[in-house]
Amino acid sequence: MPSVIDLDALYTTHALFDESNGRTEVLELLFFILVPLTYHLMIPLHFDQSLEGRSVVRKKKRRILYEGHRKLRLLHVQNRNDISSKIKDQRGKLAEIMEPDFGLLPKLISSGGLNLNEKEKIEAEATRSGRSKRLLDLILANGKHHEFIAALWDSGQIHVINWIRGNGVYSPEYGDDWPLEDREIKVIDRNFDKLSSNLVTAHGLLEKLFSNCIINYEQMEFLKNETKHSFKHSEDFLSILRRFSRGYFLLTLECLRELNQDHVARMMEKLEEGEDYSPDNGSDLPLERRQIEFMDRKYDWLIHNIDVAHGLLDKLLSKNVINFQMMEFLNIETKTSFKRNEDFLGILRRFSHNSFSLTVKCLRESNQDHIAELLEKGGRS
User: Fold this and answer.
1) Contact, 83 vs 164, CB < 8 A?
2) What is the rounded distance in angstroms from the CA atom of residue 2 to the CA atom of residue 171?
3) Are 260 and 317 in contact (CB under 8 A)?
4) In this structure, what are the phi and psi dihedrals at residue 214, rounded to the nearest 5 degrees?
5) Model pLDDT, residue 284
6) Are 242 and 180 in contact (CB under 8 A)?
7) pLDDT of the residue at 381
8) Number of neighbours of residue 228 by Cβ within 10 angstroms
9) How far apart are CA 367 and CA 189, in angstroms?
10) What is the dihedral of CA 369, 372, 373, 376, to 10 degrees?
11) 17, 23 in Cβ contact below 8 A?
12) Closest CA relative to residue 351, chosen from 316, 314, 318
């Protein structure tokens, strides 16, 4: 069956002309003549010819025409030389804000923007920045600007396109489709270990980010790799986060709050303001280092004495200390009580002060005062 026509060749060609020189109107007219005609020719003869089938086809045509026109307007860049000079001028910054992995390279392969040998050379680079620079050099050398802009669009990197369009200068029309500021990225980098120690990517966060189209399927699968330690999961997510648009960054904060990670969202809000994070009064803050170190020292005793299985998880769920995904994870029947306790303590050390206090309260309600007293002692020591 014939595949759906690729609009990229049409809208990227249109996007390379200056609207002031009169050629835009001609191309736009050709676009709205050729695309409907092409779609009439491309629709397979064995499509359902019932009223419902024809309605589906018409809706599909209208959607594609609308999407094509929206892409044309969004991707307005003046000309080939202009794109080339902007990419060349912004090469260093583009290497820091674009995401070369998780879909961009396959899209360039399918559009002819790269060949397989070039893809292998890019993937041989050890760092994201290195892969991005190698990709940009190949795009500039081969003159594949059209394909590059189209691949950025299809991989959801509109903020990178806007950076190229504005040559690094923000315009209100870009909205939140703009990269994070240098100062924000630098502060994230300086506080990388602190954020990695408190962020929980498992138990619902990745699924929520995926359902909100903040990450794609490849990113979710990469971050859910079961062979990784939870700390490594957080590190990998933060490496992806620093290349998000401002809009995706703000949506990530909303997702964290919805999953009872207000303390992490609050840390990131501090970072958004360009400040180093420092604890102040309030309950939605991460546990202090001394509390975590105390739990680490008492780890063996805690893991052999805490009782997670009999009632504690239900109480924590009822108080919104853990979510349903966490409870399901901890309640897997094949786990031994030792493994269940171990996993729970791994989650506990990433709680906020408020969630930690509620956990102590739930321990008392579950007749585990000896555990509660020990954890409270760690908070006072």
Assistant:
1) yes
2) 40
3) no
4) -85, -35
5) 65
6) yes
7) 55
8) 15
9) 43
10) -160
11) yes
12) 316
Exposed / middle / buried, residue 286 (Cβ in 10 Å: 0-12, 13-18, 19+):
buried
Task: Return left, alpha or beta for 326; rule: phi > 0 is left, psi -120 to 50 is alpha, else beta.
Answer: alpha
Q: Point out the residues of the chain with pLDDT beneath 70.
A: 1-81, 226-230, 270-284, 379-381
52-73 pLDDT, tens digit each: 444 444 444 455 444 554 454 4
**Residue with token string 């290349």:** 243
pLDDT of residue 160: 94
* Rounded to 5°, angle at Cα 132 from 167 and 277: 80
Give the Cβ contact number of residue 82 at 10 Å. Answer: 16
Dig out the tokens for 189 from the structure: 């980098």
On the CB side of 326, CA atoms within 13 Å amount to 27
- Measured CA to CA, the distance from residue 116 to residue 348 in angstroms comes to 46
* HEC readout, the chain: CCCCCCCHHHHHHHHCCCHHHCHHHHHHHHHHHHHHHHHHHHCCCCCCCCHHHHHHHHHHHHHHHHHHHHHHHHCCCCCHHHHHHHHHHCHHHHHHHCCCCCCHHHHHHHHCCCCHHHHHHHHCCCCHHHHHHHHHHHHHHHCCHHHHHHHHHHCCCHHHHHHHHCCCCCCHHHCCCCECCHHHHHHHHHCHHHHHHHCCCCCCHHHHHHHCCCCCHHHHHHHCCCCCCHHHHHHHHHHHHCCCEHHHHHHHHHHHHHCCCHHHHHHHHHHHCCCCCCCCCCCCCECCHHHHHHHHHCHHHHHHHCCCCCCHHHHHHHCCCCCHHHHHHHCCCCCCHHHHHHHHHHHHCCCEHHHHHHHHHHHHHCCCHHHHHHHHHHHHC
Q: CA nearest 135: which of 123, 150, 153, 149? A: 123
Give the chain's largest Cα–Cα span. Answer: 80
